[in-house]
């Protein structure tokens, strides 16, 4: 599912954005901490789509200016009003967190963890602790210092699938954009997409329209192959537009993504079983050659490679 956060800054703007979001969203998040003088009952009635009510503190990447008691009381009001989902952080004081988790209503609780500085080497202990709490959906979002941090999230999503646990698993930042595209395809409960540029609620959020119309992440698929471009920078590459459109035209489940790569050898060691083929841009065209099993004579002559193909034997 694609979730679009509504970031205000006014009630009028929020209501307008909710209406605009319906074109791309499967679910909408109300970031109450970013909407000045919000009117919760009005917001909850503004769409027929499922709604997540969120109220973040500054330490959790939000702008709530009141006390913790006041912040959590807003979430209680959302539950009483019949909100579809309420998001509450693991960092919430236990005496305030427990009543939310123990509530008896139809509202589903998203228990969330955010790390705005890095991605720990092993996410499993955190996941296991969160599984012991009575949240309906777990959310683990970290900051990617390196593209390899995405693999930690993907592996955790695979574990959650085996455990039959609903998990939102994402990486923030430029290095984490890969997770925002592929997380739903690896079993993630949802991914977040911004309604428009400048309306992101976290670093690295991709436009919802791109997630839906280009990457097609809201459409279930099986046995898909991953292709992409490697280099640094890759933000200006138009390959994702061309190749994903071509996949869509021929009815292929495959997907083409961007890999922001600083160390080519490290990338191949960690992602060698992840992709089926690559386009290569600067500065990787030359440094990639020693990593290839075979090199086309022309590429060898000019000293640069622009395409990598994985053969059936790997």
From TrEMBL:
The keyword Oxidoreductase applies. Its EC number is 1.1.1.25. It is an enzyme of class 1 (oxidoreductase). The keyword Magnesium does not apply. GO terms for molecular function: 3-dehydroquinate dehydratase activity; shikimate 3-dehydrogenase (NADP+) activity. GO terms for biological process: chorismate biosynthetic process; shikimate metabolic process. Residues 229-308 form the Shikimate dehydrogenase substrate binding N-terminal domain. Keywords: Oxidoreductase. HAMAP family: AroD. This is Shikimate 5-dehydrogenase I alpha. It comes from hydrothermal vent metagenome.
């Amino acid at each position: 599912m694609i979730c679009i956060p509504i970031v205000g800054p006014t009630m009028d703007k929020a209501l307008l954005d909710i209406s605009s979001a319906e074109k791309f969203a499967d679910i909408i998040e109300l970031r109450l901490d970013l909407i000045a003088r919000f009117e919760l009952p009005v917001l909850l009635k503004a769409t027929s789509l499922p709604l997540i009510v969120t109220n973040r503190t500054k330490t959790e990447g939000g702008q709530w200016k009141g006390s913790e008691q006041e912040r959590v009381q807003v979430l209680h009001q959302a539950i009483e009003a019949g909100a579809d989902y309420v998001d509450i952080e693991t960092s919430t004081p236990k005496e305030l967190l427990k009543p939310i988790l123990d509530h008896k209503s139809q509202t589903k609780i998203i228990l969330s963890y955010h790390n705005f500085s890095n991605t720990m080497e092993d996410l499993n202990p955190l996941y296991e602790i969160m599984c012991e709490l009575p949240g309906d959906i777990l959310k683990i979002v970290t900051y990617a210092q390196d593209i390899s941090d995405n693999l930690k999230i993907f592996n955790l999503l695979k574990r959650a699938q085996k455990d039959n646990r609903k998990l939102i698993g994402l990486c923030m930042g430029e290095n984490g954009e890969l997770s925002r595209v592929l997380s739903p395809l690896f079993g993630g409960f949802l991914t977040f997409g911004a309604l428009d540029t400048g309306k992101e609620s976290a670093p690295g959020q991709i436009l919802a329209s791109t997630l839906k119309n280009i990457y097609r992440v809201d459409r279930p698929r099986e046995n898909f192959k991953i292709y992409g471009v490697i280099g640094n920078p890759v933000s200006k590459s138009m390959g994702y537009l061309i190749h994903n459109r071509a996949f869509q035209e021929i009815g292929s489940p495959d997907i083409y993504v961007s890999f922001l790569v600083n160390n080519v050898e490290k990338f191949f060691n960690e992602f060698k079983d992840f992709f089926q083929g690559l386009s290569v841009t600067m500065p990787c065209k030359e440094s990639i050659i020693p990593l290839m099993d075979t090199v086309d004579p022309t590429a060898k002559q000019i000293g640069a490679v622009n395409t990598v193909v994985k053969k059936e034997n790997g």
